[in-house]
Amino acid sequence: MVSALVAACSVAATAWIAVQTTSGAIKQEQGQNLTADARIYNTLLGYAAAHPTWDGVDGTVRELARQSGRRIALTTQQRAPLADSAARSAPPALPPQASAIVDPLAVDTALSRTVEGTGSTSERVDPRAVGPFRLPAAERTALRHTAERYAACLSRIGIAADVVHGPSGRPRVQLVGTDPDRVQDERCVSDRLDAPTPTERKALDALDGLANACLKRQNRSGIRLNPDLSWDDGTRSRAAAGVMAREIPTPVPAVRTGEDDRATASCVDTARREQLSSYVASPALLFIGTQDSTTVPGFDLSPENTAKIAGAAALVLALTVGATVLAGSRLVRPLRALTGAAQRMRDGADSAPVLVSADNEIGRLAAAFNDMADHRARLEAQRKVMVSDVAHELRTPLSNIRGWLEAAQDGLAEPDPAFIASLHTEAVQLQHIIDDLQDLAAADAGALRLHPEPVRVDEVLAQVAAAHQGRAETAGVALVAEADAPAALWADPVRLRQAIGNLVSNAVRHTPPGGRVTLRAHAAAVPDGEVREVVIEVADTGGGIPAEHLPYVFDRFWRAEKSRSRRTGGSGLGLAIVRKLVEGHGGSVGVTSTEGRGSVFTLRLPAARPADAEAGAGGTDGDGRRAPAGPDAMATRI
Question: What is the pTM of this model?
Fold first, then answer.
């Protein structure tokens, strides 16, 4: 869970920082590339506006390519090459789509506005395309002198002004932070500076002719254009047209709502394009890409932006490594504690419980390890007690046998019937202990054989009661067998009598004189009325078993009384054998006890099925599978 959380946080942080940093870098690089592309477009557009052909543009293209580090190519609209900054021998193929169309009579206004100083105009005719409006040197010189005198006059009266020149060569006086109304009140105004020159009047007359021819084809009245390309009905002279436009010939058609004005504006625009078409270069396709590249690139990250992204990635990596190390140390610490405890356990030393600090996978593992260590410690303690108990149980009869034999050998005892009976009793005790150990070892190895057959539980209880009646009478204990109704079991009668007999023997041993041991059996039916289980109970009125000891009564070599007296306790294997035998029959064993009132041991065994009853001597094995019938049947193993 922690690893998944750290991974999710690191991925999210990396993605967010990378997106933010990369987006900023992309925007910056794209902005730089767009500005560079716009400058290239604007420079070539100015060349086309000032030259009637593309001859000689190769030098300009190569200089622009050197400054931008890009490949620049110009072709005709039919893709015939005009200029290319790539190597002259076998240049790379051009991309299928051009970056822009360079046409001074149809300017791409988006690219034009990107370059500072080119003018933010929505007109499609480049202002540098002046054509017949370009002033000759004489007119330009005369106007410049007039403009300089006008600027000097303004300076003398405290008005700052500069002389600037437009694309046509016409000078104009540009005021520096002065209210235009203040200039109109002075005597420095020069009508000569605002009046059109002969060259400009000639160009305006030609433009009038082209525009009026267009209007005549539409059956509309003619117009007369002013120097600022506005128009009137033709009755006013150009001398009275007012102040010249600051830059000729930027078209500023009147914005009117009448249909005639719309038609007039369209005709003026068409006339301008027709008049300038022979003075500007023909439209060309512009291709901008990387050096020796056949595609138009998006951008290349600069070293600064690359360093930003690398730094962001390094920061996220450092935070991720730190969080992983911190989380890993918290995970590894309890694992190391578990490893140390397991090593101490392997070396035979007692292992202290591992601290369970959290309710997670590691905490549950530590709790399970502690339970396992406790269980192992109990088993080890039981093993030690077992060895001591078995040694004691074997030593006592062997010592008695040895003593009697040595006495007979020394002539101190006569081998009479009493002598022989004493030796026989001790030998039987030894045989009982050895048989218990053998049965338990066989059950552990899965070699304990069962020979199941139909068995009446009331008959088994009667046989067990009869077998232990003498011992019960000697101990002063009443032994009674009860059965609610005859019930059939599919079981090994010998092993079943052994299991019940062990319980009866323990009950008689731990019941004081005057007490009572009762054997009961009844069938347990399910809601549909079918008997599927037979319950056998062995109840006594002894001192009972403390509640804290109940979980361990079926463990090997466990005794309620810790003394090793043969009078008060057996070998401690009887109840362990009972559990193995009952489980081998597919049943279960349990115990309830109340101190001072006695204990009840309960065996739950599967009832015989009708098919089992019909099988006669046949049966099932320990897993409930059908066993073959007859005397040659294979014995079932636990």
Answer: 0.43
Helix (H) and strand (E) counts in the chain: 15, 19
pLDDT digits (tens, 9 = 90+) for 467-517: 899 889 999 999 999 877 667 888 889 889 989 998 998 899 889 999 999
The residues that bridge with 232 in the sheet, in sequence order, are 224
Residue 548 and residue 483 share a domain: yes
Distance, C-alpha 473 to centroid of its chain: 76
Q: Which CATH number is 470's domain given?
A: 3.30.565.10
CA pair distance 166, 171, nearest whole angstrom:
6
Same domain, 518 and 398: no
For the stretch 258-280, pLDDT in tens is 788 888 888 988 989 898 989 99
Residue with tokens 């009950």: 507
Q: Are 268 and 256 in contact (CB under 8 A)?
A: no
Q: What is the 3-state secondary structure (H, E, C) of 21-68?
A: HHHHHHHHHHHHHHHHHHHHHHHHHHHHHHCCCCCCHHHHHHHHHHHH
Domain total for the chain? 4
Other C-beta atoms lying within 10 Å of the C-beta of residue 563: 9
| Other Cβ atoms within 10 Å of 549 Cβ, number | 13
In contact, 187 and 261? CB cutoff 8 Å: no
Judge whether 532 lies within some domain.
Answer: yes
Strand partners, 480: 518
- Domain coverage including residue 393: 353-445
Chain centroid to CA 481: how far? Answer: 68
C-beta of residue 368 within 8 angstroms of C-beta of residue 338: no
SS3 of 199-210: the string is HHHHHHHHHHHH
Which of 445, 469, 487 is the last residue in one of the domains?
Answer: 445
